[in-house]
């Protein structure tokens, strides 16, 4: 275990040079773009996955919402690949930094709201008042809906940060505990190791699920507003 | 020292040291040229390291892990196995 538990989350600098930009750009090397009719294995697998995901995710949108296809697919690819790469030992995950997630969430959410307000002003403003509310409750409900609208980008960013950070922290802690327990009692260490294995499997799932949830929510906000 | 083949068309390994400044100035620094250079570099990297039959992506990931070990080395130095910490 490190001296403080959070040393793995500081932005990495190598001899004073911040290499965090290189680390953010690294997943793009692993995702080559298809250039031929029949590509090599890596590109074909990725192409198939992207088609599968895009069909499933864009099926709920109308024509106007489907212009966001490129944005949503790059979003899910970026978050998924960055989270999965963060599970390698010693690597730095950019999505653990709240600054980056806010930078992803706020513009996308603001874009969906701006589209809604510009093209369908009445409908998007009507979202503030659910159907069938009794008359005296209306002012309070409008206030509550406004607050819930403005909390959407914060929730998107904080959800992603907190999930990934918590997962990494748990892995560090339980790994450290296993190592410390090995000299005391091997059986407890084995049990802790099993917990570690299960946790790692969970982390793989969480990495992908978080990407999916982020993108799904953005697409839902889009659906409301187109 | 002049050479038989004009400097402009040589690859880097064939350029003599005295001709190096003129070779560098000859490269095209327009945005289109720099983009072309990045694209060529990317495909050279890919064809050499990723498109191999023996699992190129795994090699790239292993190199990435080793690369990330360098900034962490300072904090991890005292985690070596020894009797007294």
UniProtKB/TrEMBL annotation, chain A:
It comes from the Eukaryota. The chain crosses the membrane at residues 12-31, 67-88, 100-117, 137-158, 170-198, 204-222. GO terms for cellular component: mitochondrial inner membrane; proton-transporting ATP synthase complex. The keyword Transmembrane helix applies. It catalyses: H(+)(in) = H(+)(out). The keyword Transmembrane applies. Keywords: ATP synthesis, CF(0), Hydrogen ion transport, Ion transport, Membrane, Mitochondrion, Mitochondrion inner membrane, Transmembrane, Transmembrane helix, Transport. One of its GO terms (molecular function) is proton-transporting ATP synthase activity, rotational mechanism. It is a multi-pass membrane protein. It is found in: Mitochondrion inner membrane. InterPro entries: ATP_synth_F0_asu (IPR000568), ATP_synth_F0_asu_AS (IPR023011), ATP_synth_F0_asu_bact/mt (IPR045083), F0_ATP_A_sf (IPR035908). Belongs to the ATPase A chain family. Component of the ATP synthase complex composed at least of ATP5F1A/subunit alpha, ATP5F1B/subunit beta, ATP5MC1/subunit c (homooctomer), MT-ATP6/subunit a, MT-ATP8/subunit 8, ATP5ME/subunit e, ATP5MF/subunit f, ATP5MG/subunit g, ATP5MK/subunit k, ATP5MJ/subunit j, ATP5F1C/subunit gamma, ATP5F1D/subunit delta, ATP5F1E/subunit epsilon, ATP5PF/subunit F6, ATP5PB/subunit b, ATP5PD/subunit d, ATP5PO/subunit OSCP. This is ATP synthase subunit a. It comes from Ursus americanus. The gene is ATP6.
UniProtKB/TrEMBL annotation, chain B:
It comes from the Eukaryota. InterPro entries: F1F0-ATPsyn_F_prd. GO terms for cellular component: mitochondrial inner membrane; proton-transporting ATP synthase complex. Keywords: Acetylation, ATP synthesis, CF(0), Hydrogen ion transport, Ion transport, Membrane, Mitochondrion, Mitochondrion inner membrane, Phosphoprotein, Transmembrane, Transmembrane helix, Transport. It is a single-pass membrane protein. Subunit f, of the mitochondrial membrane ATP synthase complex (F(1)F(0) ATP synthase or Complex V) that produces ATP from ADP in the presence of a proton gradient across the membrane which is generated by electron transport complexes of the respiratory chain. ATP synthase complex consist of a soluble F(1) head domain - the catalytic core - and a membrane F(1) domain - the membrane proton channel. These two domains are linked by a central stalk rotating inside the F(1) region and a stationary peripheral stalk. Component of the ATP synthase complex composed at least of ATP5F1A/subunit alpha, ATP5F1B/subunit beta, ATP5MC1/subunit c (homooctomer), MT-ATP6/subunit a, MT-ATP8/subunit 8, ATP5ME/subunit e, ATP5MF/subunit f, ATP5MG/subunit g, ATP5MK/subunit k, ATP5MJ/subunit j, ATP5F1C/subunit gamma, ATP5F1D/subunit delta, ATP5F1E/subunit epsilon, ATP5PF/subunit F6, ATP5PB/subunit b, ATP5PD/subunit d, ATP5PO/subunit OSCP. PANTHER family: ATP SYNTHASE F CHAIN, MITOCHONDRIAL-RELATED, ATP SYNTHASE SUBUNIT F, MITOCHONDRIAL. This is ATP synthase F(0) complex subunit f, mitochondrial. The gene is LOC123786723.
């Amino acid at each position: 275990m490190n001296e403080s538990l959070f040393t793995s989350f500081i932005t990495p600098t190598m001899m004073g040079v911040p290499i965090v930009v290189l680390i953010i750009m690294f997943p793009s090397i692993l995702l080559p773009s298809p250039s031929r009719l029949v590509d090599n294995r890596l590109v074909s697998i990725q192409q198939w996955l992207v088609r599968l995901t895009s069909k499933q995710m864009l099926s709920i949108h109308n024509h106007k919402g489907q212009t966001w296809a490129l944005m949503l697919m790059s979003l899910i690819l970026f978050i998924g690949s960055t989270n999965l790469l963060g599970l390698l030992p010693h690597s730095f995950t950019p999505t653990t930094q709240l600054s980056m997630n806010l930078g992803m969430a706020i513009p996308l959410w603001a874009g969906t709201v701006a589209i809604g307000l510009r093209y369908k002003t009445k409908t998007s403003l009507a979202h503030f008042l659910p159907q069938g509310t009794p008359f005296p409750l209306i002012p309070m409900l409008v206030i509550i809906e406004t607050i819930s609208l403005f909390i959407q980008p914060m929730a998107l960013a904080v959800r992603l940060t907190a999930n990934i950070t918590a997962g990494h922290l748990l892995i560090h802690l339980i790994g450290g505990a296993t190592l410390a327990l090995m000299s005391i009692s091997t059986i407890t260490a084995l049990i802790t190791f099993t917990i570690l294995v299960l946790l790692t499997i969970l982390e793989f799932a969480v990495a992908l699920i978080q990407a999916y949830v982020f993108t799904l929510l953005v697409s839902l906000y889009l659906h409301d507003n187109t | 020292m002049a050479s038989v083949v004009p400097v402009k068309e040589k690859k880097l390994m064939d350029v003599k040291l005295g001709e190096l400044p003129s070779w560098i100035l000859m490269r095209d620094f327009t945005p289109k040229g720099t983009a072309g250079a990045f694209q060529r570099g990317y495909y050279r990297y890919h064809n050499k390291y990723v498109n191999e039959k023996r699992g190129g992506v795994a090699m790239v990931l292993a190199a990435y892990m080793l690369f990330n070990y360098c900034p962490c080395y300072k904090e991890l130095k005292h985690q070596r196995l020894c009797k007294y910490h």
